[in-house]
Amino acid sequence: MNTTNTGLPGGVAISHLSVYDWPAADGACGGTPHMHLACSEAYVVTGGRGAVQTLTSSGYEVTPLQAGTVAWFTPGTIHRLLNEGDLRITVLMQNSGLPEAGDAVLTLPPEYLTDPETYARATAIPADAPEEEQERVARARRDLALEGYRALREADGPQALATFHRAAAALVRPRIAEWRERWRQGAEASAAATGAQLDWLERGESPHLADAAVSSEQPAARGKFGMCGRLDVYAN
């Protein structure tokens, strides 16, 4: 039995992020506030400085970011990156494949969260459009998400946040079967492989060591317009 996992350790995904320096209505420069529903996210700051604003049922926080900072948060954390000077981050995402399959909902105003089609029209960046048009759309959806984000921050009590959570969960519900399969082939398979290896080692066996392998790759795409900035992304 070959238990070698050819993906990154633990079934994580990695990307390199240059956070947008576009100013918003509040004067701050940065990305699009959003929330993940099934994936934790970690930042390893490699350069520049900035901050991440977060909003959860526990309240609003600001975490400063500078080279060397490692910060992470769990599903349900609404987060907005602020660029205060050439902020660059290596991003680690739990459950490789799920974020790419839609495990993120932007904090759009409620009227854009009513159904998947309405949400998609407000958030999709046309892949075949010129770069200038892609940037225009990415910036417009960032500003639209900031409208909803400001309303959530200014709301009196937890009800507005709970309403957003319910709307986000309803939007992604049609994708869960696909997500589950990606998880089974990725993070679950990685954990199962470790379990099998521990079983062998406990019995004094080591067949998996003969399957040792070395892998490397370059980014599959560079400079993609992401939610928080320009992304270099990898296939695994």
TrEMBL record:
InterPro entries documented for this protein: RmlC-like_jellyroll, RmlC_Cupin_sf
Protein's UniProt name: Cupin
Gene3D superfamilies: Jelly Rolls
Superkingdom assignment: Bacteria
Organism: Streptomyces regalis
